[in-house]
Amino acid sequence: MLRLASSSTTLSSLPSPATASSTTSQSSSPYTAQSSSKSGSGSFSSSGSISGSSSSTTLTLLPVRRRPETLLLSTAAASTPPSPPPDSEMTSAGGATTGLVINGDFETSPSSGFPDDGVTDGPSGIPSWKSNGTVELINSGQKQGGMILIVPQGRHAVRLGNDAEISQDLTVEKGFVYSVTFSAARTCAQLESINVSVASVNADADDMLASRNVDLQTLYSVQGWDPYAWAFEAEDDHVRLVFKNPGMEDDPTCGPIIDDIAIKKLFTPDKPKDNAVINGDFEDGPWMFRNTSLGVLLPTNLDEEISSLPGWTVESNRAVRFVDSDHFSVPGGKRAVELLSGKEGIISQMVETKADKPYILSFSLGHAGDKCKEPLAIMAFAGDQAQNFHYMAQANSSFEKAGLNFTAKADRTRVAFYSVYYNTRTDDMSSLCGPVIDDVRVWFSGSKRIGAGFGFWVFVLLVVGLV
Fold it and tell me: Which residues span the domain enclosing 224?
């Protein structure tokens, strides 16, 4: 069933990348730093039906084609690349294209065994990694004062002290984009973050090819840690992946904990023939661990051209969650996006359009099946049109189709989504959650193929009436 809201609103000013992070939602966040279709004139009616002129037919939402792993933020057509291995397959090594990097889970024992005090012995104390500064190889259950240190997965993880870092050299393919997935947790109440970067192996320490500070202040999960993803384009065949604590805390025992570091080679998707949206089904994205039920957080990448979720930009301060069908309810395929933190978690894409032409934005809206407290609602934007959509629970489905009409004002149109509310799970009242979107499509609503179909059915009805 395709559900449509009663009307759409023309906005004089929509939330833009420059203002998105400063907007406020309908309720305050509990987490702060202190914290096919085709074109012919189909339209969405206020009654929830689809109408059209004599040159159109009933609208059919075609399934989105699944792509191999992707990359570029471009709508240009591309040849189909070889399919990468599924996320369940780990191919680890310094030359790995996909999977856990060598000792990315820090479970390989040093030659002298795991240290009792956690502090590594010299710059090569962690197998396959180089370290600089105070780096601790912590154990599950290890205490710091009265606090138990969190190990995201397995029995061991690494904690980085003030200005400390670990690095590993990787063999990649120049010109390709790679996504790095890692799990991280903070240990103290201070403003902790972690810097992830890549550099050429022969470059100076400060000569980074790409770099990003990931804020760890917001706890998205009651478990105290979350998986994150970040992407970079390889400018050399050999790069050094670096994780660094950029902070200088008053308490030297503070510092971020990292674990489960994996890499995934992304590929360029074909441009859909009947959809202006690239990767609208969200099937192309960062590495996900099968044994992790938290999804992967996608931090803001507003000032970057490279994205772990090809085609899409996370505009605001808070992250959105990339989810899988193994642990969440997904409308279609194996991947989708869960919107978090109200207006503070905006996902958007610029799509190719033709000025003054009518288009339809459609998408699937649903519940992730993660005990998220309702109501669930999103704001959807297409050019100067905006519409809020409330998820209505269905007896036999966890999602529904929705959409809106808009007229393009330029050759490129921004489509965007955010959650209307700040939602948390009903079982812990702390873990952030929200509505799920999937199968995002934008297409010209004046297709001749639609028109032909409509004319055929009008002819049939006339013949039946005459008989």
Answer: 98-264
